[in-house]
Amino acid sequence: PQRKTTLEQEFLLTVMRLRLGLLIKDLAFRFQISTTRVSQIWITWVKLLSKELRHLIIWPSKGQIYATLPDAFKRFYPKVRVIIDCSEVFLETPSSLEVGACLWSDYKHHYTFKFLIAITPNGAVSWISPCYGGRTSDVFIVRNSGFLDLLEPYDTVMADRGFKIKSDLTMKRCYLAIPPSAAKGNQMISDDVAVTSKVANVRIFVEKAIARVKWFRILSTELTMIMMYRNRDMDALTLQTLRICELTR
């Protein structure tokens, strides 16, 4: 049968849903096609763009990292290879209690999926993990996503306090840079306050990178459980969004 939409229109439909988070019914009305056809176009283009834009997220060599190291890192953390953090995206309430238990995030107080994102010191996305349920801990994702296999001896990984991965990095002959924690009921000593401030000043790069991702409203609204059950589509959607972020940096 003859196509009712051109390739240009299908691409426009896809990026409109990505950027604006428009509903399937809304897009069907705008493009004068059925909701089934919108879903088919959306899924097809998400997978296609994820594959075609895969070269936009790369794991740079140490030489490339050090050649583009910002002044703030050169001064305080010259050996940092990567900054990591986890981000979560809301999901609609599942009908299954068992599935809901895996997706519930105590941190967000909502059903979510979670992924680990790695940022170079100059703010580029260098790696992203597969998607996990919101219940999954940050440490579990680091250990099981393949991230540790990318590291080389003497790399320094910067993270937040919640990443209790010092022993894992030690096994790889790597180092962990995190803000110091104060003992319960006690104030930080002046040296710890200074270290916390230094880490916060350079960790702003990963916060900005995640903010760029959430600029795409499809990842700022509740996603459907249908996409969650089709886990490869969820991974492709997240990867595609991050790759477009890098394209528009």
From TrEMBL:
Whether Metal-binding counts among this entry's keywords is: yes
Domain (DDE Tnp4) spans 84-224
GO MF terms held by the record: metal ion binding
Q: Which InterPro entries match?
A: HARBI1_dom, Transposase_HTH_dom
Q: Does the keyword Ligase apply?
A: no
The protein's required cofactor(s) are namely: a divalent metal cation
| Keywords attached to this entry | Metal-binding
Q: Which Pfam families match?
A: DDE_Tnp_4 (PF13359), HTH_Tnp_4 (PF13613)
Domain Transposase Helix-turn-helix per the UniProt entry, residue ranges:
6-53
Protein name as annotated: Uncharacterized protein
User: Organism source for this protein?
Assistant: Paramuricea clavata
Mind giving the lineage of the organism this protein is from?
Answer: Eukaryota, Metazoa, Cnidaria, Anthozoa, Octocorallia
